[in-house]
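Figure 6 in text form: structure in, sequence out.
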């Protein structure tokens, strides 16, 4: 597909050679490219379609890497990547050897900050802006923040510390969506700003008046800004952003390239931190994404001519299985509540929302609040279930310890996307929760198939005794693990051989690789037994004694090695007087590529072939 303007742009400097009237056509070409490219590779679509004009205008006026762009969340950076010379990488977007789906400083000097989690951009941007001041460096720092991020508290912690940074611009990309529909008073406040005709009419009249007054110096500028603040306070009583120290501008049409360019050019000599409120349409230019932005937030490859019906039930997965089982349990026990942090569909809790809306709570992008809110519910005799991705649960580690564990409250953590995660790379891996939850003293179960998930979720809700967690991987069960069913025991011996000198042990989805490695060793004439844990912390009663009869043990897990379950098992064996050989295969790096899980396992030495070789190399 030809892209006459986009084909000419391999850097922001080439973008600046275009005439302003050419920018709308370039934006259309970018949208066409993104729809075509992401439909082939998968990726984040709706959020990127909504920020095309804004990103083009920023690069047309400002100059990266001297000017810094900090995205929140980083999945809206695709246009930025196109304009900074990375178009060829889109052929393998979020795949091994291709582009990351998020900003990555190791990928380009134009990427200022890793941004896979929300609420972080303003704090990071303030730090960068202060650093420029201290070092005497020129340039702006721009934080591009989606309105969903404003449901998280860290945004306000940052805004409370903007000081007098006249090199800081915070842009609110207001599309009325986060990943799920925004909730809460902040969303309602932004709606008032966006829709009040009295304010917009008065603002337009004042701007027309100011356009006819020559610039008379900074004193007059400040006086006029004070008049505008007074106008807003008259209409709204206060403007939150200005009370925090910003010069508020907006709301502005985020798809009007000419207006955005003009505004950004006028801000070159700003006298205070600027808060630019930009209104956009998530999924702009692709009707299915405009109508169902949540469905097109993060997508697999799709046929643009034969789109799936969003009302059709999603494919079976651990997330949907968990959500449906939780509804069945909630039908039997009116104390059960469900909590999500802006991930209703991702965690499968849409079923709870539809069946028991009064017992479903979406707290926005606020994981710390989600956990402490659950603690409050539990303290009053309810049974809250916090459905949350492993990578996001780590953001509330203090709340798990202080607000839940110290009082032994009955909160169940349903940890989704546990273990290795494809596509999103280093920002979204679920490799830490077994280590940090166990260090906090939270019992953890890790089912490997749907039958175990159903059984243990029900068991953990029957007679709860303090905090506990059940973790499961992204996607669906594999045939090799589905046939194992559920014994209802905390651990199982899957393979028993005569005269086995050693055993392979794992839990969760890694069990499939351990089983295959055992089969490969057996085919080579080496007899080994195979064990699978479901209860991974504390170690099940009798496990250490049973494993202590083997001379050699290999433990594999999709978890960090330090503090992982394998390290804990080895310590328990040594404490019990065992003197055998222990091989621990786990994740030993924090730098994980964006590739599918099978390739990640090869890279990390967790695939069946690598496990077999580790055994044979003894």
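Output sequence:
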């Amino acid at each position: 597909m030809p892209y006459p303007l986009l084909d000419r742009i391999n850097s922001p400097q080439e973008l600046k050679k275009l005439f302003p009237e050419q920018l709308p056509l370039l934006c259309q070409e970018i949208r066409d490219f993104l729809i075509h490219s992401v439909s082939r590779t998968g990726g984040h679509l709706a959020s990127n379609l909504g920020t095309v004009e804004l990103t083009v205008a920023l690069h047309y006026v400002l100059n990266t890497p001297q000017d810094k762009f900090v995205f929140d969340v980083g999945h809206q950076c695709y246009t930025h990547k196109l304009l900074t010379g990375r178009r060829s990488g889109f052929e393998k977007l979020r795949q091994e050897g291709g582009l990351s789906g998020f900003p990555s400083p190791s990928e380009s000097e134009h990427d200022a900050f890793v941004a896979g989690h929300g609420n972080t951009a303003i704090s990071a941007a303030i730090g960068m802006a202060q650093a420029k001041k201290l070092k005497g460096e020129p340039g702006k720092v721009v934080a591009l923040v989606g309105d969903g991020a404003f449901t998280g508290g860290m945004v306000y912690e940052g805004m409370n510390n903007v000081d007098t940074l006249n090199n800081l611009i915070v842009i609110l990309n207001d599309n009325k969506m986060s990943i799920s529909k925004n909730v809460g008073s902040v969303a309602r406040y932004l709606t008032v700003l966006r829709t009040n005709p009295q304010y917009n009419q008065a603002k337009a009249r004042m701007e027309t008046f100011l356009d006819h007054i020559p610039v008379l110096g900074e004193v007059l500028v400040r006086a006029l800004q004070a008049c505008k603040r007074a106008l807003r306070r008259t209409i709204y009583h206060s403007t939150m952003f200005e009370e925090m120290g910003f010069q508020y501008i907006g709301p502005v049409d985020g798809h009007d390239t000419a207006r955005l360019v003009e505004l950004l050019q006028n801000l070159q000599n700003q006298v205070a931190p600027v808060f630019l409120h930009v209104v956009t349409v998530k999924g702009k230019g692709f009707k299915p994404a405009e109508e169902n932005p949540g469905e097109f937030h993060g997508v697999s490859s799709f046929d643009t001519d034969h789109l799936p019906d969003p009302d059709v039930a999603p494919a079976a997965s651990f997330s949907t299985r968990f959500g449906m089982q939780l509804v069945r349990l909630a039908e039997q026990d009116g104390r059960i509540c469900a909590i999500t942090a802006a991930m209703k569909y991702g965690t499968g809790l849409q079923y709870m929302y539809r069946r028991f809306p009064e017992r479903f709570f979406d707290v926005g992008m606020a994981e710390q609040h989600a956990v402490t809110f659950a603690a409050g519910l539990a303290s009053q005799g309810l049974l809250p279930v916090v459905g949350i991705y492993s990578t996001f649960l780590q953001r509330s580690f203090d709340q798990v310890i202080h607000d839940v564990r110290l009082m032994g409250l009955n909160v169940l953590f349903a940890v989704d996307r546990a273990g290795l995660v494809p596509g999103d790379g280093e920002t979204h891996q679920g490799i830490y929760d077994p280590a940090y939850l166990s260090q906090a003293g939270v019992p953890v179960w890790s089912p490997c198939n749907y039958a175990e998930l159903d059984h243990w979720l029900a068991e953990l809700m029957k007679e709860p005794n303090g905090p506990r967690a059940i973790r499961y991987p992204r996607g669906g069960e594999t045939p090799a693990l589905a046939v194992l069913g559920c014994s209802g025991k905390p651990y199982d011996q899957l393979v028993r051989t005569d005269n086995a000198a050693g055993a392979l042990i794992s839990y969760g989805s890694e069990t499939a690789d351990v089983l295959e490695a055992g089969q490969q060793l057996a085919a080579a004439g080496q007899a080994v037994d195979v064990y699978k844990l479901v209860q991974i912390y504390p170690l099940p009663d009798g496990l250490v004694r049973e494993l202590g009869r083997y001379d050699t043990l290999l433990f594999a897990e999709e978890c960090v090695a330090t503090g992982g379950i394998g390290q804990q098992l080895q310590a328990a064996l040594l404490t019990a007087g065992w003197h055998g050989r222990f091989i621990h295969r786990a994740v030993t790096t924090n730098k994980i590529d964006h590739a599918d899980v099978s390739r990640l396992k090869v890279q990390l030495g967790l695939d069946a072939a690598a496990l077999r070789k580790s055994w044979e190399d003894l």
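Caption detail: Confidence is low (pLDDT under 50) at residues 309-313.
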